[in-house]
Amino acid sequence: MKKLMTLLTGGLLLAAVQLAAQTAAAAKPVIMTTDGEEIRAALVELTQSGDFRYAESLKDGSPKLSIRKNRVKWAWIPKPEEITTADKLLGSKKYDEAATAFAAAAKSFGPLGWEPYSKLRQAEALDAQGKQSEAIKVLETLKDYKSSPRNEADLSAAYELLIKFYGNIKAWDKGLELSKKLMYAGDAAAVSALFARGDILSARASETNSQDDRRDAFNAYAQISLLFPKSSRAAEATFRAYQTLTVLNDARAKIFADMLKRDYPKSDYAKQL
Q1: Torsion of CA 83, 86, 87, 89, to 10 degrees
Q2: Dmax over Cα atoms in the chain, in whole Å?
Q3: Per-residue pLDDT tens digits for 97-156
């Protein structure tokens, strides 16, 4: 038994060390070149010409190497202090200052992986001031953005917010077209796309009373619930599916209510049943 416990403890320690190493590596600046080389560095920065410069060590005298921007597929650095400061402004409801700070951050740190996040938060700050049309313009600049594994979730969240805004102004076709684009990204993006699709179809159904739109909205929410049950948004999707079926007077609503109680009993959505 003692030998077994030693082996188990050793295995757990090894797993912890490996996880810590992976976490540390994920937190380091990185440059992905157009030919597939991943450069992990201690420092990555931009030159005045828009090219990239990196150092493999932060020690005094460590050389900085340059790489032309046309050789960089994407780059990423840990969250800059300027963006953390902008986050605090947004959290303190200083929306005008936050919008200005995030706009500046998008310019300074956009090429270093922070354009989607900065523009998402800038749009939120603008919307909080009643400037939804300006927020839409900011988010629309991301339509052709090429994401990386480090900012795909931020880009998906930005698209989802843009689709929500399209729903608010009844630009249904624009929202539905953008939701299709999200479908071809990773799992997180697919969940965002399905949510956005369900929401805009629900919004249009509320306007037109289209039962077909409501059924399509249900299908979007149900896909999240059934295909991505471990998603952090699965409980919400299950609840939305239940709500939509209830409006449709569809007896299958009970199936999703039972699923919510069984699989997500502690969620806020289960408490609303």
Answers
A1: 170
A2: 72
A3: 999 999 999 999 999 999 999 999 999 999 999 999 999 999 999 988 988 999 988 998
What angle is formed at CA 94 by the lines to CA 119 and CA 46, rounded to 5 degrees? 40
The token pair that represents 44 in the structure block: 């990555």
Mean per-residue pLDDT, 232-242: 96
In Å, what is the CA distance from 186 to each residue of 94, 242, 258?
Answer: 34, 26, 29
- What residues form DSSP beta bridges with 38? 32
Q: What is the pLDDT of residues 163-212, one digit of tens each?
A: 999 999 999 999 998 888 776 656 667 888 899 899 999 999 999 999 99
Q: What per-residue confidence (pLDDT) applies to 182?
A: 72
- The encoded tokens of residue 76 equal 């990423």
Q: 3-state SS string over the chain? A: CHHHHHHHHHHHHHHHHHHHHHHHHHCCCEEEECCCCEEECCEEEECCCCCEEEECCCCCCCCEEEECHHHEEEEECCCCHHHHHHHHHHHCCCHHHHHHHHHHHHHHHHHHCCHHHHHHHHHHHHHHCCCHHHHHHHHHCCCCCCCCCCCHHHHHHHHHHHHHHHHHCCCHHHHHHHHHHHCCCCHHHHHHHHHHHHHHHHHHHHHHCCHHHHHHHHHHHHHHHHHCCCCCCHHHHHHHHHHHHHHCCCCCHHHHHHHHHHHCCCCCCHHHC
Q: Evaluate whether 76 touches 115 at the Cβ level (below 8 Å).
A: no
Angle at 24 between CA 157 and CA 19, to 5 degrees: 90
Across 7-31, average pLDDT: 50
Q: Tens digit of pLDDT for each residue in 36-79?
A: 999 999 999 999 999 999 998 888 778 899 999 999 999 999 99
